Amino acid sequence: MAKTSKVVSLSINNIQNYWGLCKPKVVLMLLITATVGMQLASANFIDIKLLLIANLGIGLAASSAAVINHLVDVNIDALMVRTQGRPIVSGKVSNINALFFALSLATTSMILLTFYVNTLTAVLTLFGIVGYAGVYTMYLKHRTSQNIVIGGLSGALPPLLGWTSVTNQIDTGGLVLLLIIFIWTPAHFWPLAIDRIEDYKKAKVPMLPVTHGIPHTKNCIIIYTLVLLPVSLLPFFINMSGNIYLVSAILLGLWFLYSVLQLKYKPVSRSAMQSFYVSIYYLLGLFSALLLDHFYRIFLTIS
Predict the structure, then answer these.
(1) 197 to each of 148, 185, 200, how far by Cα in Å?
(2) Would you state the pLDDT for residue 4?
(3) I need a surface site. Which of 68, 81, 178, 193 has the fewest CB within 10 A?
């Protein structure tokens, strides 16, 4: 009986290790934005079968890219405090098993998206895997301080993938959603890079605070946040969203801007991480407002 319990315990731990490789919190955020993209591309409510299959395909692809990121970054992860406990670094998952796991996730994703959603979404999703796991992780991350800016395109794809899952074409609405996340990404990530600057120095990763200093990085965060304000209003100006979204986007944008201004002019010990978390809540709030506004417009249409 004790031996059986030990086997079960080891099995559960193994599942948790593979689950951790997938970066589930990051994938969840990507799926939220993908779901909003699907709903905004639909005149009415999304077909539940399409919603589930498309999200499963997109989620598996994002998880595959995350696993490859763990594999490629194993040496620098071993040097950074926040990543030293990751499954591959700690030896809980072998390199070959992680690679097989990543390939299995990617292959399943491509099969689901190609045969049950559409080829365009499958191709764009594959582009996202290659962009994040290959171009960003293997090259940009170690070559330029603008790594997160250029590589951010891959992370901005999910709402467009959601959009194309429904429409099978690239439209203005989907591109606007992509643009919002593309502009948001540097302002979201650089506060984290400021907080973990010593880790990045140790690992010799040329993040912007390492190469250009913290004051310059704070200025760049403010610039991207200011640009994000008008960009976030584009859904209203192209008539994709209405007044509920407009008011929400303005208030959320001002809150985000206030946070990064505090980081620049009145910093305290945890200001960088506070701005980082505000950026997450900002994006969740923005996409929730898009969804709420869309449902309200559907309700007005059918009532």
Answers:
(1) 15, 18, 5
(2) 53
(3) 81
